[in-house]
Structure formats: structure tokens, C-alpha cells
Amino acid sequence: MNGLKRSFSTHVTPSQTQLFIDGHFMDSAKGETFETINPVTEQPIANVQRASRADVDRAVLAARIAFDHGPWRRMSATDRGNLLYKLGHLVEQNGEELAYLEALDNGKPVGVAMAADIPLTVGTYKYYGGWADKILGDTIPAPGNFHAYTRREPVGVAAQIIPWNFPLLMQAWKLGPALAAGCTVVMKTAEQTPLTGLRIGELIKEAGFPDGVVNIISGYGEDAGAYLSTHPDVDKVAFTGSTEVGLKIMQTSSIYGLKRVTLELGGKSANIICEDANVDDAVAQAHLGLFFNQGQCCIAGSRTFVHEKIYDEFAEKSAKHSQTAVLGDSQDLTTTQGPQVSKEQQEKVWSYIEKGQSEGATLMAGGDKYEGKGYYVKPTVFADVQDDMTIAKEEIFGPVMQILKYSDYDEVIERANRSEYGLGAGIVTQDIGRALHLVNGIRAGTVYVNCYDAFAPNLPFGGYKNSGIGRENGPQGMDNYLETKTVVMSRPDGSLP
Q1: pLDDT value at position 62?
Q2: Model pTM score
């Protein structure tokens, strides 16, 4: 592995650190702030206004008034779509700035942000802009002298809570379908990464969205997030994050009335390498599936099941491949792996590495702590991992690969499904019949065959079991924000109205 490269060149500074409520940027009601930290330097980037319960009340009230009395849901669907398309265009115009700001606040390499996060974010806003005027009902042949049809209507005020691993993209995944449907939104950004979310608030204002339609607040999950998810004037809660927090939201969100809830939660995805796989190709696929975004990806292929006939070769080549990573300043275009998002996350990953060693897994690469500045974790590869080991059961959310051996395909299906999660899976094989057998047997929301981490706005994304409820992206993403109203009209004269 190459040594740590640093440039520390200043490409961008945050333009906005206030709360965005009712179309205006403002300080928090209490005047409280919190620091957002650069995970490369471990130094503060800026002080950001911290939302309290009073700020949640202000934001929800603005969204409630905008939904109940404003022009948004009464606006032409085409006009709503045009505003979303304009927002996508503004993100595209400001893409380089946003990529560097994302790298600064999150720690991901700016080259990755430019190649993945920005295009996917732009595509999501434009995709849902195209959906706005295609929300259709049905005409139903009701029995008797009745004319019946359905309308799809916005669910109302949506509370949206996004994570820190893909701040720009997760914001788009939430805002796009909600706004296309005609909902209004109060969004809480992750406290670790508030800066790009607030910059999008500026672009929303520039695009010309009516005041109160989108409100963006920064704060902590335990106060602002918890209160937002239970607020009596919120109709819908959408959360992306840990399964632990998702379960709490399910338990508490309807204290003051039943809310629609969708959750995109954790994963421990199985990546199955078959005996006929080209080993070099399989290693490349597995490393993308695990190490992408510093391993901070909910669908990461973190249980790598390798057929016994190629197991030793795969493990050796995986260990060698991991050494090609270039750890460095996230704003350096030559960096391929940045730091973890926070000190807390770094220490969590280190604790799992120690657990893997203590439980008897074979350390093939990495594993020693990074002692310099920045929240870095060296790419780590474990072989001889058993299903009952902690690292094989729990979501690590870091650059730690676990390689498990199998011999039978029905056996590996059973082992892959022996998890509380069901977000994703991967398969590498040259046999289409074997691929389909595995695809049909695995209980997961997305299965990649001879690829991994292929995302697009029109591909539904979500999980089975404790990986979540509902789907984001694609037409199914719209369903989260729409109610169905059935209209039945009498035809007393027996004729069509």
C-alpha cells in the first residue's frame, strides 16, 4: 500500500451554515452551533447552526402551511417537474464545487464524488422531474350505475432524515420523489456532514421553489431527529441509517398519530464467488463491492463467500489487491481511499478488526492501526472467517473484507440467508443457470451478477428483513409519497357522465 499522500489544498469553503426554513436562511432559535470536522485533518471546518425542538416546530409549520395553503400541490405537475429539472441542472453546473465540499466534509475522495455522487445526484433530480406529470390514476368498471376512478395524491408533510455516507445522493433520493409527488419536506442532515445539504438549500432557492416547500435543518439525531420523526404535524417519515435507529423510529413515530414510514437500513450482504469465476475479475468485483466509499456503504458485499476450489488463490490475490489503495487527502485527485467519516467510526472499525483477530480469523492484509493524522483505516482482509464470528454477523461499515469458504451452492444460499439483513448480494459466475439459481434463492433487495455497486435513479433500491421497508428510486420510490383516493360517482340515468 502506498504511503499517505497529502495536498491540503483549499478548493472550496462552505457558503452556508444556517438553517433553511420557509425559504430563508436563519440562525437556530437558541443560537446554538456545532462543529463539523474535516476527517482528513481532524480540524473544524465551520460552526453550523444546531436545530432544537423549537427549530423543528418552525420548519414543520412552514412545511404544513406550504402544503395546506401554498401553491405547491396545486401547481401544474409539469411546473413542479420543471423546477426539479432546474435543480438538477444547477447541481450539474455547480458539480465541481459540490464534489470538493462533499470531500471536505465527508472524507470521500473528490475523484469518487465527481465520478459517482454528482452524476447520480443530477440524474435523480432530473429523473423525478420527469415523473411529476406522469402520476396517473385508473378508471375502474364498477358494478351498477357507477363511474369509478382513482387519484394519486401527495401524502402531505414528509420528515426526511438522511445519513452521512452519501450526503448529496441520499438527499436527492429523498427530495426527488417527495417533491415530484407534491409533498412538502423537512429534512434533517447528518450532524457529521451538513454542508452540502445546506448548499443544496441555496440552489433550491435559486431554482425558484416556493417558500416552505423544502426546509433543511442541521442537528443531532437524539434531539432534532427524534422530535421530527414523532412530530404531530408530520404525515410521513423517511429514514436512511442504522437498523438500530430505524427500529426506534418504527416504535415511536406514531405516538401522536399513524404516520407512513419507509426505512432504508443496514446490511451484511453476501457476495458469492463461484468456482468457474475468473479469479482476477472476481477480486476486482469483490473489492469494489466492499471497499467502495471506505466500506461505508450499506449494501457492501461484506461476506465474501468463495468456492473451495479457488479459495486460496482468491484470498492471496485479495490481500495483494488491497495494498494498491492510495490513502490520502480526500481533495487530492490521486487518492483512492479517504478517511472514515469520524473518529467514532474509525474506532468502531478498529474494534471489529481486533474482534476478528481475537476470534481466530486469519489476517491476510492490513489490521494494524493507522497512527497519523486523520481517521484512516488501512484496507484489511480476513480469511478463514466462520459464520458465527462477530465480523461475519455484524455490519462493520468500514474497509474490512471477510472471506468465507463454501463447497455447495444450496449450502451457500442457506448461509447467505442466515442473517437478519437482506439488502443486497453479489454473484460472480460464467454459468447463467447457476446465476439464476442463486438469484432466486437469495432473499435480498438487489442482487448483482458479475458486477457490484451499479446504481441508477430508475433502479429500485431497498431491503428484505431488517434492512428496511419500502423502496427508493424507480417508480416504486414515488409510492412512498402518494396516497390513493377512490372516487365513485352515481349514474342515476344509466349513462356515462
Answers
A1: 98
A2: 0.95
Catalytic residues: 264, 298
Q: What is the pLDDT of residue 6?
A: 43
Per the domain annotation, does 3 fall within a domain?
Answer: no
What does the alpha-carbon distance between residue 225 and residue 5 come to, in Å, rounded to a whole number?
A: 37
Kindly state whether residue 15 falls inside one of the protein's structural domains.
yes
Q: Is 320 a member of any domain?
A: yes
> What is the tens place of the pLDDT at every residue in 187-243?
999 999 999 999 999 999 999 999 999 999 999 999 999 999 999 999 999 999 999
In this structure, the answer to whether residues 191 and 275 fall within a common structural domain is no
Burial (CB count within 10 angstroms: exposed 0-12, middle 13-18, buried 19+), residue 433: exposed
**259 and 396, same domain (yes or no):** no
> Could you report the per-residue pLDDT of 357-372, keeping only the tens digit for each?
999 999 999 999 998 9
Both 241 and 289 in one domain: the answer is no
Claim to verify: residue 234 and residue 329 sit in the same structural domain: no
Domain count, the chain: 2
Both 345 and 306 in a single domain? Answer: yes
Whether 31 and 171 map to the same domain: the answer is: yes
pLDDT < 70 regions, the chain: 1-11, 493-497
**Dmax of the chain from CA atoms?**
84
Query: How far apart, in Å, are the Cα atoms of 220 and each of 127, 226, 395?
Result: 31, 9, 22
Q: In degrees to the nearest 10, what's the CA dihedral of 6, 106, 109, 101?
A: -90
Whether 222 and 341 map to the same domain: the answer is no
CATH of the domain at 153: 3.40.605.10
Assess contact for 404 and 303: CB atoms under 8 A.
Answer: yes
Domain region containing 250: 10-265+463-471
Q: Do 237 and 294 have their domain in common?
A: no
